[in-house]
Amino acid sequence: MSEVKARTELLRLGMELARHDRLYHAEDAPEITDAAYDALRRRYNDVAAAFPGLVGADDPAAKVGAAPGGGFAKIRHGVPMLSLDNAFGPEDFTEFCARIRRFLGLDEAALGFVAEPKIDGLSISLTYEHGRFVQGATRGDGTEGEDVTANLRTLKDLPLRLKGEAPARIEIRGEVFMTKADFLAMNAAQESAGEKMFANPRNAAAGGLRQLDARITATRPLSLFAYAMGEASGPVAETHWEYLERLRAWGFTVNPLSRRIADAAAFQAEVGAARAGLAYDIDGVVYKLDDLALQRRLGFVGRAPRWAIAWKFPAEQATTVLEGIDIQLGRTGALTPVARLVPVNVGGVLVRNATLHNADEIARKDIRIGDTVIIQRAGDVIPQVVGPVEGAPRGAAAYVFPAVCPACGSAAVRAPGEVVMRCTGGLACPAQVEERLIHFVSRGAFDIEGLGEKTIREFHEEGLIGGPADIFSRLPLLEAEIAVREGWGALSARNLVAAIAQRRGIGLARFIFALGIRRIGEANAKLLARHYGSYANWRAQMAAAVVIGSEARSDLGSILGIGPAIAEELAEFFAEPRNVAALDALAAELTIADAEARGGGELTGKSVVFTGTLETLTRPEAKAMAEKMGARVTDSVSKKTDLVVVGADAGSKARKAVELGVRVLSEAEWRALAGGGGGG
DNA sequence: ACCCCTCGAGTTCT
DNA sequence: CTCGAGGGGT
Q1: Beta bridge pairs of residue A114
Q2: Strands A144-146 and A74-76
Q3: Do A289 and A113 touch, CB atoms closer than 8 A?
Q4: Which residues contact A67 (CB under 8 A, 6 or more apart)?
Q5: pLDDT at res. A38
Q6: Is the minimum distance from the CB of A564 to strand C below 7 Å?
Q7: Nucleotide C8: nearest residue by CA–C1'?
Q8: Residue A105, Cβ neighbours under 10 Å: how many?
Q9: C-alpha dihedral, A490 to A493 to A495 to A500, nearest 10°
Q10: Is the pLDDT reported for residue A30 higher than 60?
Q11: What letter does residue A23 receive in the DSSP assignment?
Q12: Which nucleotide has the least CA–C1' distance to A83?
């Protein structure tokens, strides 16, 4: 096919696919069969793969799932995508089994496990409705991922339609990866084309999946193994192994090494020996309790299931020389020592820096400048300095942590009982001010497009902005000056000014978070916004709360989740006149929206205790009701308890509630209040 | 005086 | 991702 013909073909196929996507997703009125759709899609992918140079960003077929503002739309996972606890040796695995036995009250009974190699790729979630693939998302932070449906549709291993019977709606989880051979071939092709090369298969897979243009993804050799169950609208299997067999029957590829095992240590050794010869990278083996009913009973602790564990292979290590230790400054003034290393390749990534955390850590590991040190990247991504290589020549002297801030010269102090050293310079420390500005424009805060870390540093160092208010009061007046800066142009300067203008309106929670007050992260900012409602009220109450013992201070402390340390931190911020002046200057530039009315009902965020015998509800029902309304249920009454529901024969808890002045409800009153959430 | 959990802060590299 | 610290509960 000639390039001209290919171009026409791609355009035609692209428009057609876009039309069918729309009919299918938005109008729910497909005109062609799934098989016909698949054939179209395959044809499209083939042409796109043969002529990668033709793929552009304007093709309608590439746009499914893309967010309006570019990037990907966010998708909330029905069931969070959790992480796994790690094991590093047989003792960890034994302890894992013991924990399961303890929890389930099983003594000698053998536990059946399914073992699966842990692929070093990207976790994804796939949703099928009536057997058809409708949506795919990345793991993201576990709660919310990115919609990469269009990209996933291009994977050869992904069935667009499940073979045979399937529940009406089912979510399937798997791992997208690139084989070592595909990676090498692709990198060779990229190199000869003068294109960007990837450091390792994992990055290559990530890069391929996160293309904004699905046609580029189609040209990347991505593979997929399915391995886990998310939500399903009907029963699928009774054991994990049966479930894997269902996946195979539906048309997924399941890792062929997966199997039921009796001896984890033996399997671990077997896979470890086979590791180098496998077609893909793995970093361990996942062991899952086979019986799904037992899995349900075990449930989760924190962010990980109790019924599975990832037994990791020993971390990849490398040795290099510690050239020096730099001190980095955080926005709260924390001084963090960072190791500057002679660049070394660890597990496919060139490592130059590694955090040393704090002075204690350096002393404990006895790390000195000039040492030959061991670097490792364990299950995580972040490199660590393990310690000096034994027997190698040592650096001269023990490291002495600086007593003053390297940026401003103010004293560096360590609060009693704390580990970190902090600069006492506050607003007088330019480095702290700069870090705070970076936080101010960061993603969860003002998130101004075109104003990233690098730009902020430049603007701050050159005196264009001294504080957050300047972003709004000064930068828009400097459009002409910015336009002639290196790397800028008239268009980008205009866009920046527009982006700034757009952010003059902001929600209260984001605004509070953006201030960068210590201990006030996203969650606490939201608590404050909900409690105070409006900026004016918050500002007034905080100013009043500076006085210890004031009514405003105790009101602040009464917020569930806000304790004395956080209240003190806020009071300190407002006690500093320069902070208040900067805050007022900033607020004058903005329109700060009131916090959205408390979601749901008056129970949101409240702490509820049930006591006595409930007559029309079981305890689990009552608990589910409360949680559905956003409340938190505990067993004991304290002064942070908002509500005590008293059943028959209530004892000391009811008395305590009265003593503490906590609102008391009868079961009937509770039902009236929470009625909406019943049955759950 | 504990334990468990959530939140915050800091960090690496592509 | 990991650590430390705060908050709330027992």
Answers
A1: A260, A288
A2: antiparallel
A3: yes
A4: A73, A74, A147
A5: 59
A6: yes
A7: A561
A8: 7
A9: -160
A10: no
A11: I
A12: C1
Among A680, A678, A641, which residue's Cα sits nearest to residue A658? A641
Q: For the stretch A394-410, what's the b/e string if a residue is b when 16 or more beta carbons lie within 10 angstroms of its beta carbon?
A: ebeeebebeeebebbeb
CA distance A575 to A550: 14
Chain Cα centroid distance, residue A491: 33
CB contact set of A169 (below 8 Å; sequence gap of 6+): A127, A128, A129, A130, A231, A232, A233
Q: What is the pLDDT of residues A664-677, one digit of tens each?
A: 888 888 888 776 54
CA–CA separation, A585 and A577 (whole Å):
12
Residue in A261, A266, A254 with CA at minimum distance from that of residue A227: A254
Closest CA to A535 of A511, A570, A553, A557: A511
Would you give the distance in Å from CA A350 to the centre of its chain? 24
Residue pair A286/A240 in contact (Cβ under 8 Å)? The answer is no
Full-prediction pTM beyond 0.85? no
Question: Please, are residues A385 and A356 in contact by the beta-carbon 8 Å criterion?
Answer: yes
**Which bases in strand B are touched by protein, i.e. have an atom under 7 Å from a CB?**
4-14
Closest-approach nucleotide to residue A196, Cα vs C1': B14
Provide the pLDDT confidence category of residue A22 given band limits of 50, 70 and 90: low
Q: Which residues pair with A517 in a beta bridge?
A: none
Mean pLDDT within A634-663: 79
Domains of chain A and any CATH numbers: 1-63 (1.10.287.610), 71-314 (3.30.470.30), 318-388 (2.40.50.140), 426-503 (1.10.150.20), 507-593 (1.10.150.20), 607-677 (3.40.50.10190)
Mean pLDDT of A373-402: 82
Q: What is the pLDDT of residues A477-515, one digit of tens each?
A: 999 999 999 889 899 999 999 999 999 999 999 999 999
* Closest C-alpha to A239, from A187, A186, A285, A295: A295
What's the CA gap between A508 and A445, in Å, rounded? 10
Interatomic separation, CA of residue A634 and C1' of nucleotide C9, rounded (Å): 8
The region of weakest confidence among A33-42, A68-77, A416-425 is A33-42
Instruction: Say if CB A333 and CB A424 are below 8 A apart.
Output: yes
Q: How far is the CA of A543 from the CAs of A60, A511, A515, A522, in angstroms?
A: 54, 17, 15, 21
Please report which residue ranges of A289-349 form alpha helices under DSSP H. 292-298
CB < 7 A to strand C: residues 50-79, chain A: none
Nucleotide nearest to A636 (CA to C1'): C9
Q: What is the dihedral of CA A390, A396, A402, A408, to 10 degrees?
A: -120
pLDDT given for residue A678 in this prediction: 41
As annotated, the active-site residues of A are: 118
Q: Name the β-bridge partners of A607.
A: A632
Whether CB of A141 is under 7 Å from strand C: the answer is: no
Q: Is the CB of A519 under 7 A from strand C?
A: yes
Show residues, CB within 7 A, near nucleic chain B. A 198-199, 203, 301-303, 328, 330-334, 336, 338, 349-355, 381-383, 435, 518-525, 561
Q: What is the mean pLDDT of residues A87-114?
A: 81
Mean pLDDT lowest among A423-437, A545-559, A620-634: A620-634
Neighbours of A157 (CB within 10 A): 15
Q: Is the CB of A418 under 7 A from strand C?
A: yes
Q: Which nucleotide is nearest to A378 (CA to C1')?
A: C1
Residue A166: HSE in the Cβ half-sphere, 13 Å Cα cutoff: 28
Q: Which nucleotides of C are covered by protein (CB under 7 A)?
A: 1-10
| Residues A675, A628 contacting (CB under 8 angstroms) | no
| Residue with CA nearest C1' of nucleotide B11 | A355
- Sort strands A308-312 and A85-87 into parallel, antiparallel or unpaired: parallel
